[in-house]
Specification:
Elements lengths: L11 H6 L36 E3 L4 H6 L9 E3 L36 H29 L4 E11 L6 E8 L5 E8 L11 E6 L6 E3 L5 H23 L8 H25 L2
Parallel strand pairs: 5-7
Antiparallel strand pairs: 1-2, 3-4, 3-6, 4-5
Length: 274
């Protein structure tokens, strides 16, 4: 009979030191204090001598097919000249240094309107500016404090709403002056009967309108009127061709002249309503 040798049973210490199946095991190099230090590659952590210095260059399919069988279809290049997948590095195309030319679109010349049309617009907008300046002159002086208080007695009222027209007799406080047949502005709808008296203000004995407005109404008249005068001035500069002249210097002069017309008209009506 032959006896088979009995294999020694693993010790408990050896079984405890064995790692579990599937668990990652870190390499445990044996270090000898007497060995010299090894230079380690910083990217992979491997010794520098273990990293290849030259790698095969990946060639395109058409180039590999053209090489006869038996020849080496891959060349070897230094590791610094290829990518991680073996593709050779290619130099990026450099941009040509120089001035960047900006393409400018050709400027379009705008022709001013015909003289008859421009003259017609100038006359129409000047008349509108004069009307708005006349309506706003009296309320402007009242708003800044240049006025005389008193009472007005209604003698006649016609129409209603925006078309209401009232006239009366204004008696200034202290009997300083009396104005008859003046136009009364801002009469409430319930006070239009003949003989009704209202508190009103006038700019002076030469004024033609007594203003019975109270609150924000007396400011709304001159603010809206002067805003419309500014709109007429802008329309004159636009539709007469002053703002479309090609020469910048001439364009500035023409725009200033277009704005100066309504401004002078407004100053004249303010001086007349003082």
């Amino acid at each position: 009979m032959t006896s088979t040798p009995v294999s020694p049973e693993p010790s408990a210490a050896a079984s405890d030191a064995r790692p579990a199946r599937g668990a990652p095991v870190a390499p445990q190099p044996r270090l000898d204090p007497a060995d010299p230090p090894v230079e380690v590659e910083p990217t992979t952590g491997a010794p520098v001598d273990a990293v290849p210095r030259r790698v095969p260059v990946r060639q395109p399919r058409w180039q590999r097919r053209s090489v006869p069988p038996g020849d080496d279809a891959t060349g070897w290049a230094p590791i610094e000249e290829v990518h991680w997948d073996g593709t050779p590095l290619r130099d990026e195309p450099r941009r040509r240094a120089g001035r960047v030319r900006i393409r400018r679109e050709p400027t379009r010349t705008v022709r001013p309107p015909d003289p008859p049309a421009g003259l017609a617009v100038l006359l129409a907008l000047s008349l509108l500016a004069a009307f708005f300046a006349w309506v706003s002159a009296g309320p402007f002086w009242l708003a800044v404090g240049h006025s005389t208080g008193g009472t007005v007695m209604i003698t006649e009222c016609t129409g209603g709403g925006l078309g209401q027209r009232c006239r009366g007799i204004f008696q200034a406080d202290g009997d300083r002056f009396q104005a008859q047949g003046v136009r009364v502005s801002g009469v409430p709808s319930g006070r239009t009967a003949t003989g009704s008296t209202l508190a009103a203000r006038m700019t002076g004995p030469d004024g033609a309108t007594a203003y019975a407005d109270t609150g924000a109404g007396r400011h709304l008249r001159w603010l809206l009127g002067l805003a419309l005068v500014g709109g007429c001035a802008a329309g004159i500069a636009r539709w007469t061709g002053a703002s479309r002249l090609p020469d910048p210097r001439q364009r500035r002069r023409a725009v200033w002249l277009a704005l100066a017309g309504p401004l002078l008209i407004t100053l004249g009506f303010l001086a007349a309503a003082w």
